Amino acid sequence: MAPPNPTGFEIKEFVRASTSAQWRSKDPWKRNEIWRYTGPFTRWNRFKGAFPGFGIAAVAFGVYVVAEQLFFPDTHGHGDGHGESHH
Question: 43 Cβ partners below 8 Å, 6+ apart?
């Protein structure tokens, strides 16, 4: 069994990708542009970085809402003290 590769470069994956049908294409434009849609440039990987910090912000907001409901009751008095004379 081979030791783990510290660089993350996988020669078998490189050979597989370089010998696939998409790289042997006769169309030079397709062959030169295919890298834009593989590996770290897939649609999902590009979308993942579109909203940095959104997950942390959503969790922080959720904690804030729960804490406000539990520890800070509504005491600003809407409807209190108007009596019967105010309709």
Answer: 37
